């Protein structure tokens, strides 16, 4: 059937006048296909973008004797294994996904040297983006050759949205520029920062701090700011005080699927502005930068709390956790955020913060939990969170890690954007995790199924009609349109079709992705094309 694909391409080349009347090929061109550009074509393309084309060499190739790379080096491999779990190992590359699941165990450093090592599951090339022109030229090239395109910044994505077999990556990580400014528009007048798409949380915080300002970033300092994080919603320690990261963006600078450089704001392209703020990364356009609100710095009270439940009755352990989570609600309604986790027999709050608050205020809120811990008795709980905590307890019994972020992101009137409406009346975002086995894919597949079919449904049963954070959801979520986007889905879908009518940008669980299927070998095809 690759034959049919070639035939259609051939017709397009010869008869440009009737292009519109032909259906586009059913699958994206895949490495090895006749339509795949020759070495010369890649090299010519590289020259047009100033030598910014990077080809993929999987990090783990130093651990394998595979002929494809011939890079086996036992010592380099041992070093690689020690840094493998660190985000920087992956975000400094243009291609390595942080979530090992999406490498399909190829070039897996934890397997023996003779285990398979190929680029098959990875993106094939990356363009190290420095300007709108690089993006435009890349889109023209991938469009001409019908090649899959993926947008990547740091590669933190949990759902595999910044990677894709046989794709070309638009890598925005080196767009590191920042600028302080005073922004004036009908909706906001005040201090702001222009933040390049490649700027990471720690860099933005340092730049804001140098001007005595606060900027909203994630709890993990190495994720981006104006890339997938803000475009997907974005929470962090300041979210109860100022709202979500998507709520802070005043303006986007993007390159559209058609290659146009656009300034996007509530006044200019308001539909695209709305979609980019919360409607998911990698979907509507390539963001080069965003203008983000900043706030005067203020004193912040912060605390951590950890306790070990291995020596206590599990009932007491879970009652104390339940007590904490209920007792913390007034803190989040007062502008605080608590990040907490249950990992095996230990509970930890890392941290709880109350911006603008004092040590005494925070202490008084935590007092009752601390007393409870001291007494080891079960007090009267005035909110009924029993059902939630019995579900969490059953999930923990299945060896899952539970983490929660308690926050209130609608203390102030949220702007009109595409953030999942479920955020606005939630008190906790609960994330579940199962451990990843680096050497046994079958175990991982089994755990992933447990997550989708058993663990998450136990929570979904308790929160009918609610949703999940699209950046921290399950990539196998069967009902993702409703769960990740809520009632915004139809409008987002219309905006997707308007700005990206040819589906240049595909990402798993992104708006419009139901039109495509990723085959077992990674080939991306139109759904129903049957090839
Ligand atoms: C360890 C860890 C901690 C985390 N902590 C938090 C947290 O505290 N708060 C929170 O809200 N989230 C958190 N997340 C989730 C995080 O928000 C997402 O992983 C997010 O997708 C990261 O965005 P990125 O652009 O840095 O990553 P990438 O993986 O590079 O990209 C993510 C998505 O955005 C798209 N994208 C990237 N760059 C662009 C661009 N320039 N233009 C258009 N689309 C783009 C990609 O196509 C992809 O769909 C965490 C994730 C990890 C792994
Ligand atoms: C692109 O060109 C640059 C500069 O000549 C070169 O260093 C780089 O290796 C080339 N990329 C590819 C994929 O060949
Ligand atoms: C990408 O480009 C930036 C400059 O824009 C440069 O500093 C960096 O070294 C390049 N990275 C790679 C891997 O080519
Ligand atoms: C709390 O909810 C549980 C389960 O929904 C119920 O069994 C219990 O009676 C409730 N307790 C109170 C005090 O309302
Ligand atoms: C968030 O705080 C506001 C104002 O303090 C309150 O009205 C609202 O009910 C809170 N939302 C949630 C989900 O607790
Ligand atoms: C991974 O799976 C293998 C084989 O099933 C098992 O021996 C090993 O202990 C597991 N490792 C972890 C960290 O769970
Ligand atoms: C993943 O691995 C399986 C088994 O080796 C293989 O059949 C499949 O083609 C691979 N998929 C990708 C995307 O590499």
TrEMBL record:
SUPFAM superfamilies in the record: FAD-binding/transporter-associated domain-like (SSF56176)
InterPro entries: BBE (IPR012951), FAD-bd_PCMH (IPR016166), FAD-bd_PCMH-like_sf (IPR036318), FAD-bd_PCMH_sub2 (IPR016169), FAD-linked_Oxidoreductases_BP (IPR050432), Oxid_FAD_bind_N (IPR006094)
Signal sequence interval, chain numbering: 1-20
UniProt-listed Pfam families: BBE, FAD_binding_4
Key words of the record: Oxidoreductase, Signal
Coiled-coil positions: none
Residue span(s) of domain FAD-binding PCMH-type: 119-297
A molecular-function term among this protein's GO annotations: oxidoreductase activity
Entry similarity comment: Belongs to the oxygen-dependent FAD-linked oxidoreductase family.
UniProt name for this protein: FAD binding domain protein
Native source organism of the sequence: Penicillium alfredii
Organism lineage: Eukaryota, Fungi, Dikarya, Ascomycota, Pezizomycotina
């Amino acid at each position: 059937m690759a034959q049919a694909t070639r035939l259609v391409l051939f017709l397009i080349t010869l008869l440009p006048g009737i292009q519109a009347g032909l259906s586009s090929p059913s699958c994206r061109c895949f490495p090895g296909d006749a339509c795949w550009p020759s070495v010369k074509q890649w090299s010519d393309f590289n020259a047009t973008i100033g030598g910014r084309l990077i080809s993929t060499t999987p990090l783990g190739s130093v651990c394998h004797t595979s002929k494809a790379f011939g890079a086996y080096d036992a010592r380099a491999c041992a070093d690689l294994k020690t840094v493998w779990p660190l985000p920087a190992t992956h975000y400094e590359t243009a291609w390595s996904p942080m979530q090992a699941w999406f490498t399909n165990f190829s070039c897996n450093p934890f397997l023996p040297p003779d285990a398979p090592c190929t680029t098959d599951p990875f993106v094939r090339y990356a363009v190290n983006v420095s300007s709108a022109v690089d993006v435009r030229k890349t889109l023209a090239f991938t469009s001409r050759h019908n090649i899959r395109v993926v947008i990547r910044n740091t590669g933190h994505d949990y759902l595999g949205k910044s990677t894709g077999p046989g794709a070309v990556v638009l890598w925005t990580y080196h767009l590191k520029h920042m600028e302080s400014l005073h922004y004036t528009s009908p909706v906001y007048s005040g201090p702001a920062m222009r933040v390049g798409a490649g700027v990471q949380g720690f860099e933005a915080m340092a730049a804001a701090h140098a001007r005595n300002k606060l900027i909203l970033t994630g709890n993990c300092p190495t994720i981006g700011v104006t890339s997938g994080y803000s475009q997907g919603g974005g929470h962090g320690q300041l979210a109860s005080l100022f709202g979500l990261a998507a709520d802070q963006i005043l303006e986007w600078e993007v390159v559209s699927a058609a290659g146009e450089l656009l300034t996007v704001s509530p006044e200019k392209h308001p539909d695209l502005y709305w979609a980019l703020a919360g409607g998911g990364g990698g979907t509507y356009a390539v963001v080069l930068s965003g203008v983000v609100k900043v706030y005067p710095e203020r004193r912040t009270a912060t605390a951590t709390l950890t306790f070990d439940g291995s020596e206590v009755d599990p009932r007491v352990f879970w009652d104390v956790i339940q007590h904490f989570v209920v007792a913390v609600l007034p803190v989040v309604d007062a502008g605080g955020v608590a990040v907490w986790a249950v990992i095996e027999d230990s509970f930890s709050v890392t941290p709880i913060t109350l911006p603008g608050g004092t040590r005494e205020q925070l202490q008084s809120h935590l007092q009752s939990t601390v007393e409870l811990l001291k007494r080891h008795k079960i007090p009267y709980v005035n909110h009924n969170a029993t059902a939630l905590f019995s579900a969490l307890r059953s999930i923990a019994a299945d060896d899952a890690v539970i983490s929660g972020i308690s926050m209130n992101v609608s203390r102030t009137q949220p702007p009109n954007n595409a953030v999942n409406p479920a955020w606005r009346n939630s008190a906790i975002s609960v994330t579940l995790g199962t451990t990843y086995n680096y050497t046994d894919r079958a175990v991982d597949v089994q755990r992933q199924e447990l997550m989708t079919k058993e663990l998450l449904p136990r929570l979904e049963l308790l929160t009918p009609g609610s949703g999940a954070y699209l950046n921290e959801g399950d990539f196998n979520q069967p009902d993702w349109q409703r769960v990740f986007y809520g009632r915004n889905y139809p409008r987002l879908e219309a905006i997707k079709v308007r700005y990206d009518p040819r589906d240049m940008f595909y990402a798993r669980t992104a708006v419009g992705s139901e039109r495509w299927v990723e085959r077992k070998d990674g080939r991306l095809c139109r759904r129903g094309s049957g090839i």
